[in-house]
From TrEMBL:
Domain (HTH tetR-type): residue spans on this chain: 6-66
Cited Gene3D superfamilies: Tetracycline Repressor, domain 2 (1.10.357.10)
Source superkingdom: Bacteria
Keyword Transcription regulation part of the UniProt annotation: yes
InterPro entries membership: Homeodomain-like_sf (IPR009057), HTH-type_TetR-like_transc_reg (IPR050109), HTH_TetR (IPR001647), Tet_transcr_reg_TetR-rel_C_sf (IPR036271), TetR_C_25 (IPR041484)
Pfam families: TetR_C_25, TetR_N
DNA-binding region location: 29-48
Molecular function (Gene Ontology), one example: transcription cis-regulatory region binding
Keywords: DNA-binding, Transcription, Transcription regulation
Protein name as it appears in the record: TetR/AcrR family transcriptional regulator
SUPFAM superfamilies the UniProt entry points to: Homeodomain-like, Tetracyclin repressor-like, C-terminal domain
Length: 207
């Protein structure tokens, strides 16, 4: 992030977002945040009151940014948003992924909103004939979001498995067509596995 023209409050918040995303909330202290922002620890307390207050401000900021970007978007659109500004978007996604691991209220709100959006896109697609119906639209929406977020937070080992030293736009471009092939054509050539899973679910009383 370019902090040159930001206010002290925004510089502190941006530094905290980066450190919370990288190291987690518990391991990050106010002095480290202040040093990264180029201010005193006292100024951090002055603006945010405490580390918890700063965490709340960061949660609200990242939630607002990601929700705005995901508004009305399906899974492929999240990838396009990433490609438009990969470094900043990756940081925000990593922050929210960390928040999910820590089960923060902001993470729950974010997940609910993008799952709602994904489900709405799917239902609209079914209505206009561009998508197939699902036996469980909500679960499919969760799966779409899971795949999208997992793709945007790929660890280096998975990037290297594709021949890249680190995750970035080149990896996403490599994944784009196979992802759409999977969504468009599916994976299996017949419904044998689906019928077996459906039968097992019925025997367990899941249906």
């Amino acid at each position: 992030m370019d902090n040159a023209d930001l206010t002290a409050t925004a510089k502190i918040r941006n530094a905290a977002v980066e450190l919370f995303a990288r190291d987690g909330f518990q391991k990050t202290n106010l002095r480290a945040i202040a040093a990264a922002a180029g201010v005193s620890a006292g100024l951090v307390v002055h603006h945010f009151g405490s580390k918890d207050g700063l965490r709340t401000a960061c949660d609200e900021f990242v939630l607002q940014v990601l929700t705005r970007r995901a508004q009305g978007a399906g899974t492929p659109d999240l990838m396009r948003e990433y490609l438009a500004d990969p470094e900043e978007y990756r940081l925000h996604v990593q922050y929210m992924t960390r928040a999910m691991a820590e089960d923060s209220p902001a993470a729950q709100t974010f997940v609910e909103q993008i799952v709602d959006e994904s489900e709405a896109v799917q239902r609209a697609g079914v209505d206009d004939g561009s998508m197939r119906e699902s036996s469980d639209p909500r679960a499919l929406a969760v799966l779409n979001v899971l795949l999208s977020l997992a793709t945007l937070t790929m660890p280096p080992a998975l990037a290297r498995a594709l021949g890249h030293e680190e995750f970035g736009p080149d990896v996403l471009r490599r994944l784009a067509v196979p992802t759409l092939e999977l969504y468009t054509y599916g994976l299996y050539t017949d419904d044998t596995t689906l019928r077996a899973a459906t039968s097992a679910a019925a025997e367990r009383g899941d249906e």
